[in-house]
Write a structure and sequence with these properties.
The protein is an alpha+beta fold and 157 residues long. The protein contains four helices and seven strands. It has a single domain, classed as CheC-like (Chemotaxis protein chec, 3-Layer(aba) Sandwich), CATH 3.40.1550.10. The protein is 36% helix and 27% strand. Strands 1, 2, 3, 4, 5, 6 and 7 form a seven-stranded antiparallel sheet that branches. The chain starts with a helix and ends with a helix.
């Protein structure tokens, strides 16, 4: 795992869920399992680097995230909960990429793919960075997959 990418991933996730989901990060015990997964969203990107960002919402997060994002007081239908997770993944990816490749880089972000655990998403390989973010309602896990880190290494001073 790349510690700089992991820090950028964590900070981006915290900001995304604070601002978009109106959810406050809470401390998580290191190594503690975040709970059963509810759903995952995967966003592919290409440009200076190519890869995927995957966010997995663990039990309890989807209902609160979607209600906060949509301004709903009551239960949000399951398909709209998945849409909210996809949008959170899209925003997180859009905020993470300029931090790691620079603001001048041209990147293309694909529409998010979202699935429940039984449906699954394609496995993009081994992550270069991974983090967990505790939230009042549960937790989310984020994993960054990059095909080739060379462009990032060449960009460093």
């Amino acid at each position: 795992m790349n510690p700089c990418l992991t820090t950028a991933l964590y900070e981006t996730a915290a900001l995304t869920f604070e601002q978009l989901g109106m959810m406050l990060p809470v401390p998580m015990d290191d190594g503690a399992p975040p709970g059963p997964p509810e759903a995952s969203a995967q966003v592919a990107f290409r440009g200076t680097i190519e890869g995927h960002l995957v966010i997995t919402a663990h039990e309890g997060v989807l209902a609160e995230l979607s209600a906060n994002m949509l301004g709903e007081d009551g239960p949000v239908p399951p398909e709209r909960q998945l849409d909210a997770l996809g949008e959170a993944a899209n925003v997180a990816c859009g905020n993470l990429l300029p931090r790691i490749v620079g603001r001048q880089a041209v990147m293309r972000i694909s529409a998010p793919q979202v699935a429940r655990p039984a449906e699954g998403l394609p496995k993009p390989g081994e992550p270069v960075a991974e983090t967990h973010l505790g939230l009042e309602a549960g937790a989310v896990s984020l994993a960054l997959f990059v095909a080739d880190l060379t462009p990032l290494q060449e960009a460093e001073p």
